[in-house]
Amino acid sequence: xxxxxxxxxxxxxxxxxxxxxxxxxxxxxxxxxxxxxxxxxxxxxxxxxxxxxxxxxxxxxxxxxxxxxxxxxxxxxxxxxxxxxxxxxxxxxxxxxxxxxxxxxxxxxxxxxxxxxxxxxxxxxxxxxxxxxxxxxxxxxxxxxxxxxxxxxxxxxxxxxxxxxxxxxxxxxxxxxxxxxxxxxxxxxxxxxxxxxxxxxxxxxxxxxxxxxxxxxxxxxxxxxxxxxxxxxxxxxxxxxxxxxxxxxxxxxxxx
Length: 256
Description:
By secondary structure, this protein is of the alpha/beta class. It has helices at 7-17, 49-61, 93-100, 126-129, 134-137, 145-156, 168-174, 197-204, 236-254, and strands at residues 33-37, 65-70, 79-80, 85-86, 105-107, 118-121, 161-164, 179-180, 207-208, 217-219, 224-227. Helix 2 (49-61) packs across helix 9 (236-254) and helix 7 packs parallel to helix 8 (197-204).
């Protein structure tokens, strides 16, 4: 049966039957209300899909109520993930993020700390290209104004912030003195290809703490939990476990 012949009403019914919104069904006794901030869809120009999926699985298992957000802006550029090269087209970060959110997503401008118990940022180059200019400007980067606002709001409210992969650079830029991890501080024969980011963390005003891919660092003072994820060339299950530890750390800090 093809959706195209069902019409709008039929398509919505089919979506309901197939669980289109299943990711966002609120449990009767949600342990925590968690906002997840996306940056597009695809590792090289948006959110790393496996990281976002792992996060959602761990949050779902913990019974958290999840709401997804993304900035309503144009992507820095679009990468053809088959060729690994820029494509001659433009895409919108919110529209692309809706692919991961199964359509249930809100503009980042609407995210308020008062409505949530925690916020989590997956990685992927979108964090360095669409949520900030780190991919281009490095230590002199700017952070998207709503990303900066959200991080500062949650920090001021003493509500936990979860970060993985390259996303810790956002906190390092916005929250002076924050402690985060992006993994190890040398490449170790190619195992940690982005090890240079650790030095950038320090240059941005943060403190880097070396961790393995399955580990997390918890900055109790700033209530920030981070894990390396795909900063490491590691099997997917180890990355999945590290993200799970990060999610559990965040939820533990909510006290729910």
